[in-house]
User: Fold this.
Amino acid sequence: MEKLFSRSSRIARELKKNIAIIIQYFLKDPRFKIIITVSDVILSKDLSYAQVFISFLEIKHNLSIKKLLILLNKSSGYIRKLLCKKMKLRIIPNIVFYYDDSFNKGNKISLLLNKIITKEKII
Assistant:
């Protein structure tokens, strides 16, 4: 019988939780004073690389998404160092941050569907 959850999915869940905590409480850079949400973590098969997908609730006008991703990727070594203290793994994966715009796309689709529904009610 196959296991319901693999080891990599359990580690990905723990990484997601711990990275979110580290970003929220341990990054002291004033440019990170926005709400950053870790939406997903995808691990490689050998658990040495992690793709971390993040989204921002509200972005300040002077910072773009690209600049925030560059800042987060530059601080990935520090985040990895803090993960070493929090998690008992033999290998802590290298972290690369990516922007997840699925919330924005879903919101646009929802607005379009609402417009279609209201037009059908009028007709």
Notes: The domain at 7-122 is CATH 3.30.300.20 (GMP Synthetase; Chain A, domain 3).
